[in-house]
Amino acid sequence: MENSLLAVDKNRAFDIMAQFQGSSGADFVNDVLMPALESIGGRWERGEVSLSQVYMSGKISETMIDTLIGGATAAGSGRTVAVAVLEDHHNLGKKILSSVLRTGGFLVKDYGHALKAEQLADMVERDSVEYLMISTLMLPAALRIKDAVALIRERSPGTRIIVGGAPFLFDASLAEEVGADAFGRTATESLNIVKRMMQEAA
Amino acid sequence: MMDRMTSMDRTMAALSHEEADRVPLFLLFTMHGAKELGMSIKDYFSDAENVIQGQISLHKKYKGDCLNPFFYAASETEAWGGDVVYIEDGPPNAGAPIIRSVEDIDDIEPPDMDNPVLRKGIEAIEGLVDYAEGQVPVIGTALSPFSVPIMQMGFEGYLDLMYENEDAFWRLMRKNEEFCVKWGNEQAKAGVTALAYFDPMASATMTSPADYRRTGHKIAKRVISRLDAPTASHMASGRALPIIEDLVSTGSGAIGVSSMEDLAELKRACKGRISLIGNLNGVEMRRWTPAEAELKVKECIAKAASGGGFILSDNHGEIPYQVPDDVIHSIRRAVDEWGAYPLEWFDADEE
To answer: What are the DSSP calls for B207-255, one per residue?
Structure first.
C-alpha cells in the first residue's frame, strides 16, 4: 500500500483495498492504510519522500475512506479536531492534516485559512473545541500563533493546541515560544499526539 | 580587515571555484530596506526608488557582496493579475489563486514586459546597476515556471493538476516558460549580473526526484539555456542532495541550499562543478545571539569554503524581517574573521 500511495497509483491502492481479506473497513484502515501513512510520515520527517507524495497519499487515503465507510470513524473515536491556518492562504499542510485525521477516525472541523487570532479564538470558544491544530508555512503566521494561543487560553482554557509546519521544523524552540501544547513534525505525529492527549485525559 | 577585492571579483572567483580574498557574503535582504527607510513594507514596495535606496542603505551598512532588487515572490503573480496580501512583518503573500479551473489555464495570458509591476522591478534593477558600477553583483530573480503555479493555483490545486491532468499541466508550463524566459531576459537587458532561478518545487522536499526528472528538470534545462544571464537555482529551504546531478545538468552555476542538509556533504557532491549558496538558518537566525551567529558562520565556512565554490548566505533566499541588526553585524564580522583565504585556522584545526 505504501508504495502505491507514494507512486500516486490510485488504481493499485484501490486494488489492494478490494483484495483485503479483513472483516471490516475499519480493519483495513487500522491494519493497512494507517500503517502506510505512518510510515510515509516517518519517511517525510527523514527527508526520504516529498511533500507532494505526502499530500497525494493523504488524498488517495481519504478517497478510500469515503468509499469504504462513507465517513470518518475508522478508529472508533468519532471525536472532533479543529484545523486552521492563520494569516495567509497556505492550505496544503492543513489539507494533509485533515486527510490523515479523517483516515485516523476523527471528525474534522475546518476553520479555513487567512484567519486573524481573534477570529480563531472566537471559533474555538463558540464550538468548545477540545483539540485545535494550527498549520503554518510562513514565519509571520507561525509567530502570530502566540497571539491566538493567548486569547484561546483566556477564553477556552481546556483547549489543547498542536502546531505544525515548516517554521517549526526549522526552529525546534518555536513551538514553545508561541505557547503551543505540542508540535507535530508530521500529520501522523500530530494525529498520535491527539490520541495520546485523549488517553491522558480519559 | 580591509577587503583586497571588489565584491564582483570575489564572487566571480568563488563561482569559478577559486579562493578569493575571503568568502563572499550574500545578505539577501528584501523587507529590511523598509526598516532602513522607516516605512511600512507595503509603502516600501510601492515605489522602485524605495527599494533602490533601501538596498543602497543596507549595502553601506553591512557591506554585503550583492545587491538584491527582488521585491517579493507574489509580484510575479501580481503581474499576471493576482492580488497581493500585505502583512506588517513578513513578505507580501499571493492572494486568492488566479487559476481556479483547468479552463483558466487556457484563458490566462502572461503579462507583457510593460506591465507596471514588472516595470517597477526593472526600474529597481537599473537604479542598483547604476549604483554598483560593476563592482557589486546585482542579482535578479525569476520564479521557475515549475514553481510559480504554487501561487497561481495554490499548492493543492497545483499538485492535483500535476498528478491528475498532465495535458493541462504541460499547457500551463508552456505559458509559464515563455513568460519566465522573457522576464529573465528583460532583467538581463537591464543589467543584472545573474539571475536566481527560484525553484523550491524542484527540491526533494517538495517533489520526488523521479517526478522532478519528468517535469521540472526538463523545464529548467529548456529555460536556463534560453536565459541571457548566468543562473543560480535556489531551492528556498528545500533539499537538493537527491537531485544534485540533475541540478548540475540544468546549466546553473550555483545552488541555494537548505539548512536541513549538511553543507560538507553538499560540498563533496558539488565540488568543482557547481557552487553552493547558503545555508544559515533564517528562521533560527532571528533569535541567535551574536556569538551563536559567529559560530554558525564558522561552521559553514569550515564545511564548504575550502577551494572556493561557496557563497555564504541564508538558506531561504530572504532574511526574515525579524532578524535583528546585531545578528547581521555579527555575521558580517565573522566572515571577515573566519572567511579570509587561505583558511589557515581551518587548515590548522584539520592538522
So the answer is: S-HHHHHHTHHHHHHHHHHH-SS-EEEE-TT---GGGHHHHHHTT-SEE
Q: Do A9 and A42 sit in the same domain of this protein?
A: yes
Looking at the partner chain, which of B94, B206, B259 has a beta carbon nearest the beta carbon of A51? B206
Do A94 and A188 lie in one domain? The reply is yes
CB B62 within 8 A of CB B71: no
Residues in chain B closer than 8 A to A55 (CB atoms): 155-156, 159
Residue type, B321: Y
Does the beta carbon of A3 lie under 8 angstroms from any beta carbon of chain B?
Answer: no
For testing contact with chain A, the best of B283, B292, B315 (most A CBs within 10 A): B283
CA distance B6 to B139: 16
- The answer to whether the beta carbons of residues B244 and B216 sit under 8 Å apart is no
Per the listing, cell 514553545 goes with A176
Residues A90 and A33 in one domain: no
Nearest by CB to residue B239, choosing from A47, A90, A92, is A47
Cell matching residue B277: 549558496
* Chain centre distance of CA B349: 32
Coil, strand or helix: which one is A182? strand
**A146 and A194, same domain (yes or no):** yes
Q: Which residues pair with B340 in a beta bridge?
A: B22
Measured in whole angstroms, the distance separating CA A57 from the mean position of its chain's CA atoms is: 13
DSSP A132: E
Q: What is the pLDDT of residues B51-67, one digit of tens each?
A: 999 999 999 999 999 99
Report d(CA B121, CA B118) in Å as an integer.
5
What's the CATH number where B34 sits?
3.20.20.210
- What are the cell numbers at B176? 509559464
B153-204 pLDDT, tens per residue? 999 999 999 999 999 999 999 999 999 999 999 999 999 999 999 999 999 9
